[in-house]
Amino acid sequence: MSPFFVMSLLFGLTFSQTASLCAPSEYIIHVEKRECAYCLAINTTICAGFCMTRDSNGKKLLLRSALSQNVCTYKEMLYQTALIPGCPHHTPPYYSYPVAVSCKCGKCNTDYSDCVQEKVRTNYCTKPRK
To answer: According to the lineage, what is the superkingdom (predicted)?
Structure first.
């Protein structure tokens, strides 16, 4: 193999791990309210993917703020509102949800993201879907 080919391959592998693997991905949210008759399946986009991180061997020597790792998070988002069918008049039938427009690798912002990996929780309807 030529040195140019090997260098191109190494550069490609390195660059592919850090570029565009954090991107908006399609996701379905199931929304229901106790008072409403139906469950609503909403198609949206969330940020998902791989972000390059480094784990330091000198954890005890560094400040805690220096140890935070990058996550795939929102760069730009907007909110949309859906109408949940079958709600009585005294119940607001609206549900607002985020839509990822673009994503980035960065520190997790707890103002709008859940930064903790939770136990597996299913996303399903207990009522008929509409």
So the answer is: Eukaryota
Domain membership flag for residue 126: no
pLDDT of residue 37: 92
State how far the alpha carbon of 86 is from the alpha carbons of 29, 30, 56, 92, 107, in Å.
18, 15, 53, 11, 40
Q: Are 36 and 93 in contact (CB under 8 A)?
A: yes
Task: Assess contact for 52 and 105: CB atoms under 8 A.
Answer: yes
Residue 116 has pLDDT above 70, yes or no: no
* Strand locations in the chain (E): 22-32, 39-49, 71-83, 94-106
Residue type, 99: V
Can you say whether the dihedral through the CA atoms of 60, 61, 66, 69 is positive or negative? negative
Q: How far apart are CA 22 and CA 118, in angstroms?
A: 20
pLDDT at 89 over 90: yes
| Number of domains within the chain | 1
